[in-house]
Structure prediction request, 288 residues.
Amino acid sequence: MKTPLNKFVIIVLVSLTSNIINAQEFQGKAYYFSKTPMDLGTWGARMSEAEKKQMAARLKNRLEKTYVLTFNKEESLYKEDEKLDAMSGATDSWGKNFTPGVQYKNIKSNEFSQNQEFYGKQFLVKENLSKLDWKMGTETKQIGKYTCFKATCKRPVFETSWWTFSWSSLRNSDAEKKADSIKTDEVANSKAEPVEEVDMMEIEAWYTPMVPVSQGPGDYWGLPGLILEVNVGTTTLLCSKIVMNPEEKIKIEPLDKGKEVTKKEYKEIITGKMLEMRNNRGRRTGSR
Prediction:
């Protein structure tokens, strides 16, 4: 719950900066840096420190990324600022199959779309913008020159990673399906209604009323100010620079290229393809 002092601070900050937003052709750019710690699991326990450092260098382009959010009062485009792989001097073509593509959102019309390329095929993931039930905190901190306020919410784990794939998550999913099957049989025998359980994740965000737009990186939005930091699991997204009304304007419009699918359909497509590749590889190995 907000204190009277916090309410007063927000009102003052918004009044001082709202004249920027009132410009007819208002546009802004926010630059974000994301970092995820390397997790090698049990495999890493068998590696030497030198091998771990070498692996960290190879994975740097997947674990550390930069993004650009171009926004106005209602719409935004969010995309990765691609860079060369630190080891090979080439883009990370394998990792690109499992990273978020260009994202568009319109907070007025509740639109969300995202371009995804998977092994040369173009997809357009299109759904309504996910609603986030933010809980407003009273904590504040400084990010650069901007005063930020804390907010938290919970959202399904699926919503934070539907474009990714890992064999470990597939094994966990198979185990969960077996457990759910047992529960379903038990429920059927007891004639009770099945209850679907959804894994949830705590999201922490920091927003600034000094840039009074309800935008943020990725599909995060819905706060009374630009979101400058988001913590999702072990990944942190942090804004490093904001440019208000840049000289070079970018046309912000809905995405329209690729086969239109939902998030769930896209997840099923890439999972099915990975299983097919694994099975084909297994058959080739067995025929030798």
